[in-house]
Design a protein that fits this description.
Rossmann fold; 9-stranded mixed sheet; about 25% strand; 8-stranded mixed sheet; 19 helices; alpha/beta; about 650 residues; globular; single chain; FAD/NAD(P)-binding domain
Length: about 650
C-alpha cells in the first residue's frame, strides 16, 4: 500500500533560497539553482558530451525538489546540437510542491518558457509514477511521488547518469544511507556516472558499496568539495534493470486496431519506432472500441491495492494525453468532470477515506447528494465521487488520433490467422490462405480474445462479455451536465441525446439489439436518476459491442510466456517477472470496460519493454498486470 502523500511546506521569505520547513534546509544555495545544476550535476556527469548522438539517455535524480535540475538539464539538451534523440529524466520526491508553490519558485526562472511548461504539466499529487512529455515528446519526465526507499527498488530502467540530490545528510539522513545507495548498482548502465554536491563520508561509502569509483572535485559556491563517480563494479551478477524481456527494435507488427493496438502503436511511434498494424475489419475501432462513447476516470478504494494504483495511474496518464487532443479537436469528448455515485459509504465516511489516503482534490472529491446534484444540474439520490479530470470520450476518434502518425502503417481487411517463428528467428504473420502478411522482429498481439489462438496460450482466463448501450432522444427533464456513473451510466451525448448503459452478459454472442436490454438500461438509468423513463423500448436505438477481461480484472501486458514444456526446468518460474518468454512476442489485451482509462499506459509499458527504455510503472504494478502472472500462479500451484 502506498504511503499517503504530504505536499511540501515551503518558506519563500528568502526568494533566492527557499526553505523546506519540515527539513530545516534550503532547496538550493543563494548562488543559484541553475548554476549549481550545471556545475555539479551536468559537468559532474560529463554532460552534455556523454549524451551526444545517442538514441536514448537516462538520468535518475534522487530528489526532484522544485525541479531546477530537470529544467537546467532540459535547457542544456535543447541548446546542444548533438543532443540525444530522447532524454529520460527519472526523479522522486516524498514531499512534492503544490502547483502554486512550484509556480512561485519559478516566478523569475532563467528559463521561463520551460518553467511554465513544467508548471502547466504538474500532476495531481498522488503517490504514483507520473509521466510527462516535453519538447514534442523527446524529453520524458518520470516523476515518482513518495519515499525513495519504496521507489528505488521498483524502478525498471538502465540509468546512464545519477543526480544525487536532496536535503543535506545531516537534515535528511534516510535518503543518504549506504544500504539505499547500494541499490543504484541494480540500475546502473555500463559506464554510468554519478555526481552530488555532498562530500559526506556516508555518501562516499554508499557509492563505493554500489560499485562506483569515487573522486572529489571542486565544490560549488561555499562548498569546498563535491563528488563525482563512475560505475565500475568488480563483479556483476545480472544486467541492469531496464531490459527484462526485450531490446531495441525498429521492426514491429501489431495485430488489432482497437484501443489496445492503437495505444501500442502510438507509444512505439513516439519513441521513433516504425510499426505496422493489421486489422481484420474494414475500418479501425469496429468491435469493442466502436461504442459511441465511454467513460474515463480513476478509482478510490479503502485498500490502496495494486488494482487501485494501476487504475489511478492509468487514468491520470490518459487524461494528460487526451486533454491536448480534445483541445485541438482531434478527439470527440469532454474531460471536465465525472460523478460516480457511491453505493455503500455515507458522505462522512467518504471524506474520512480521502483524508486517510491524502488524495488531492484535483484528482477526486467527495460530494454530498445535494452538492453532486448541483454539479450535475439535475437531481441525484446519493453522494458521489467527483473526478475533476474524468469525463467521456468517443473511442473511435481516439483510435484514429493515435494512429495518425507517419511512422504507423495500418492494413485493413487483413485478418492474421497464424503467427509463427521462422528459421531466421523472426516472426511471420500469415493470412488464412497461407500468405505472409509481415516478417518482423517483434509482434504485439492486441486482438482481444484472439490473443489465445495466435499465441498458442490457454492459461489466460479470459471472459468475453456482450454489452448493449441505449440511446434516448432529448430528455430535458433530466440531462446531467457531467457524466454520471454508478449502477450503469448516463452521458449527455450529441444533439441533446442521452447515452446510457451498458449491459454485461458473459459468453453471449448475439449481435442484434434486444428490447429486453434496452429495458435493463432504462431500469439502471431510473436508479441513477430517480426519474421515470416512459420511452417505448421497441423504438429505441443503441449499439452492441464486446469487452474482454481477465478474471482478476487487470489487463494482460508484456511478453508471452514460453509453452509449459519449454520452461518446466527453468528456475524461479513461480514469479511472473522470472517466467521465460517467447522472444519478441508480446500481448496487450483484456482492457475490459476501462479501455479508455488504461490503454495508453499499457501501451507505453509494452513499448518500454520492446525498446528497453524506462518502464513507466513500478515493478509491483508491472507484476500485477504482467501477461505471465497466470503462468506463475499455475507454477506455484504445481507440486514440486
Amino acid at each position: 500500500m502506498s504511503e499517503p502523500l504530504q505536499p511540501a511546506r515551503i518558506d519563500f521569505t528568502d526568494a533566492a533560497a527557499p526553505r523546506a520547513i519540515d527539513y530545516g534546509d534550503v532547496y538550493h544555495p543563494r548562488a543559484g539553482a541553475f548554476a549549481q545544476a550545471r556545475h555539479v550535476f551536468l559537468a559532474g556527469n560529463g554532460l552534455p558530451r556523454r549524451w551526444a548522438r545517442r538514441a536514448h539517455f537516462v538520468i535518475l535524480e534522487t530528489g526532484f525538489g522544485l525541479g531546477h535540475n530537470f529544467l537546467a538539464t532540459w535547457a542544456a539538451w535543447r541548446d546542444d546540437p548533438q543532443r540525444c534523440e530522447h532524454l529520460w529524466f527519472l526523479s522522486v520526491d516524498r514531499h512534492p510542491p503544490l502547483r502554486r508553490d512550484l509556480q512561485q519558485a519559478h516566478a523569475h526562472s532563467p528559463e521561463p518558457t520551460l518553467a511554465r511548461d513544467l508548471v502547466d504539466a504538474w500532476p495531481p499529487l498522488t503517490p504514483d509514477l507520473h509521466r510527462r512529455e516535453f519538447a514534442h515528446g523527446r524529453v520524458h519526465l518520470l516523476l515518482a511521488l513518495g519515499d525513495i526507499a519504496q521507489w528505488l527498488p521498483q524502478w525498471i530502467a538502465e540509468v546512464d547518469a545519477f543526480y544525487l540530490d536532496g536535503f543535506a545528510p545531516a537534515k535528511n539522513p534516510a535518503m543518504w544511507q549506504p544500504q539505499l545507495l547500494r541499490r543504484l548498482d541494480r540500475l546502473a548502465a555500463p559506464g554510468a556516472t554519478a555526481a552530488t554536491w555532498s562530500s559526506a563520508r556516508i555518501v562516499r561509502d554508499g557509492l563505493s558499496a554500489a560499485g562506483f569509483e569515487v573522486q572529489c572535485g571542486p565544490g560549488f559556491d561555499t562548498k569546498r568539495e563535491m563528488l563525482h563517480a563512475r560505475h565500475a563494479p568488480a563483479h556483476r551478477a545480472a544486467p541492469p534493470a531496464g531490459r527484462r524481456h526485450g531490446g531495441a527494435s525498429a521492426d514491429v507488427s501489431i495485430v488489432g486496431a482497437g484501443l489496445a493496438g492503437a495505444a501500442a502503436a502510438r507509444a512505439l511511434a513516439a519513441l521513433g519506432v516504425r510499426c505496422r498494424v493489421f486489422e481484420a475489419q474494414p475500418a479501425v475501432a469496429q468491435l469493442g472500441s466502436g461504442q459511441p462513447a465511454g467513460l474515463l476516470h480513476g478509482v478510490v478504494h479503502a485498500q490502496d491495492s495494486p488494482h487501485t494504483r494501476w487504475f489511478r495511474a492509468a487514468a491520470l496518464r490518459a487524461q494528460a494525453d487526451l486533454a491536448p487532443r480534445l483541445a485541438r479537436g482531434q478527439v470527440r469528448g469532454r474531460l471536465d468532470g465525472l460523478l460516480r455515485l457511491e453505493q455503500a459509504l455515507d458522505i462522512a465516511s467518504m471524506r474520512a477515506l480521502l483524508r486517510a489516503q491524502a488524495l488531492p482534490p484535483d484528482y477526486v472529491q467527495a460530494l454530498s447528494a445535494d452538492d453532486s446534484s448541483a454539479r450535475a444540474g439535475c437531481a441525484l439520490a446519493r453522494p458521489a465521487w467527483l473526478y475533476p479530470g474524468g469525463g467521456w470520450v468517443e473511442p473511435a476518434s481516439l483510435v484514429r488520433s493515435w494512429l495518425d502518425d507517419e511512422r504507423i502503417d495500418v492494413a485493413l481487411n487483413a485478418p492474421v490467422q497464424h503467427v509463427e517463428r521462422d528459421v531466421a528467428d523472426r516472426w511471420r504473420l500469415l493470412a488464412a490462405d497461407g500468405r505472409t502478411l509481415s516478417v518482423c522482429d517483434q509482434v504485439v498481439l492486441a486482438n482481444a480474445d484472439g490473443i489465445a489462438s495466435l499465441s498458442g496460450q490457454s492459461m489466460w482466463p479470459l471472459v468475453r462479455s456482450r454489452g448493449q448501450v441505449t440511446i434516448l432522444p432529448a430528455a430535458p427533464h433530466w440531462c446531467p451536465a457531467l457524466p454520471v456513473a454508478g449502477d450503469g451510466y448516463a452521458i449527455a451525448w450529441r444533439d441533446g441525446q442521452l447515452l446510457c448503459g451498458a449491459t454485461s452478459d458473459p459468453d453471449d454472442p448475439t449481435p442484434a439489439l434486444r428490447v429486453a436490454d434496452h429495458a435493463r438500461n432504462l431500469a439502471a438509468l431510473r436508479r441513477l436518476s430517480g426519474q421515470v423513463w416512459p420511452h417505448d423500448v421497441n423504438k429505441l436505438d443503441g449499439r452492441v459491442g464486446w469487452r474482454v477481461h481477465a478474471r482478476d480484472r487487470l489487463p494482460l501486458v508484456g511478453g508471452v510466456p514460453l509453452p509449459w514444456s519449454e520452461r518446466t526446468h527453468a528456475l524461479r518460474q513461480e514469479q511472473a517477472r522470472f517466467v521465460a518468454r517467447q522472444p519478441g512476442l508480446h500481448v496487450l489485451a483484456a482492457l475490459g470496460s476501462r479501455g479508455l482509462s488504461q490503454a495508453l499506459l499499457a501501451g507505453e509499458v509494452v513499448a518500454a519493454i520492446i525498446t528497453g527504455t524506462p518502464v513507466p510503472v513500478g515493478s509491483a504494478l508491472l507484476d500485477a498486470v504482467d501477461a505471465a502472472r497466470f503462468a506463475a500462479r499455475a507454477r506455484r500451484a504445481t507440486p514440486q
